[in-house]
Amino acid sequence: MTRPRVKPEHQPYRLDNGTIRIGGEIYGLASEIEDPHGHAWRALQLMDGTRTRGEIVTTLAEGCPNAAELVATLLDSGHVEDASAAPPPELAPAELDRYARNAAYFRWASLRPREPSWAPQLSLKQARVVVLGLGGTGSHTAWALTAAGVGAIHCVDGDRVELSNLNRQTLYGEADVGLPKVEVATERLRAVNSHVEVTGENRRIGSLEELARLITGFDVLALCADEPREPGGIRRWANRACAAAGIPWVGGGYEGPQLSVGVFAPGFPCYECLRAEGERHGRMTDSGWPGVLSTSGGLSGLLTAHAVISLLTGIPDVAPGYAYGLNLVAPDDQIFVRYPARDECDVCGA
Amino acid sequence: MRPEEIAPEDSRKTQPKKIKVRRLAKMETKGWPASHGNSN
Fold this sequence. Notes:
- The complex is a heterodimer.
- Chain A has helices spanning 39-46, 53-61, 67-75, 93-98, 100-109, 119-125, 138-148, 181-192, 208-214, 234-245, 271-281, 294-313, and strands at residues 4-6, 13-14, 20-22, 31-33, 80-82, 128-132, 152-157, 197-202, 220-223, 249-255, 258-264, 322-327, 335-337.
- Chain A is α/β, with parallel strands linked by helices.
- In chain A, strands 8-7-6-9-10-11-12-13 form an 8-stranded mixed beta sheet, sandwiched between helices. A 3-stranded antiparallel beta sheet of chain A has the order 2-3-4, with no helix packed on it.
- The radius of gyration of chain A is 23 Å and the shape is globular.
- Chain B is α+β, with helices and mostly antiparallel strands.
- The longest helix of chain B has 12 residues, at 3-14.
- The A-B interface holds A 21-22, 25-28, 30-37, 39-40, 64-66, 69-70, 73-74, 76-77, 79 and B 14-26, 28-30, 33.
């Protein structure tokens, strides 16, 4: 790191006893540093982007015998960035302008030590994602991934737009009723972001083998389709196809007012293990009743897109093999489940 | 005891404690944000 600077969103402050709080007040980011001698506070004040690491250590060394170690610890904390880091040349000036808020978000939400603030955006640009299903969940997922700047998005759906879709499916309007969803969706998405390579197929996926062929060459599958239903349906196909291909996948959807997303990747407990264990606890439901609002469908799609972005950028760096979500009739019930892999699982079992 | 034998221990005593950056637990962070922040 050439010129360390405390991230602007992570500005530190001191409690009465000299202890430093840094990273704001958000759980998962905020940290505390005991600092009885004031050395860490002084080091953080010196990290304003105008000095080199060596200059900071030299200045701090007067009265602080372990200055180099202290500075190294702070640089590894995730609260400090390199003020001299230039954007990667792969991102055009127009992209730097378009994605400036993305970069600021990633800088804020990341605790990856020494990561240049534009590195996550470059990871998105270099990624190829399949969005399977362009309905209540997938229309929002495809929009969010396109707006965020994922490099290539392949949209797959075999349905046509119906009037009853328009209460929640963000990519379609009244003039589109009767048209293939893929046709309308790809046109809209290209209009949202011309830096993204948007492709599409007007088709349904009818077997595990078809899905396996579909995802070949892609980095992540966003599964936003719900048919064929479980057991043994599209989610099980996704689990098996992605495990065989060695890529992660995210599945999102809603059960009335409860929205959830599952995040899975090779080397971690798989969907079938999570579902089997969830059913033992009586928490997994999949009734298929059609009730959905623009808000519930949209949130499920946005949570799905966010999980894809997290997988691609590592922000936040949460181990896959879990499901989480929201219960809109009980806002205090934020859902999170993670179970170990079953020994007998032929997909992920050890 | 010769001076050189006790010097290392004395110098250890004067070393400041190594700092640690500790992530706050959920209960240590504010349960309710002071504002909703931006909405643009």
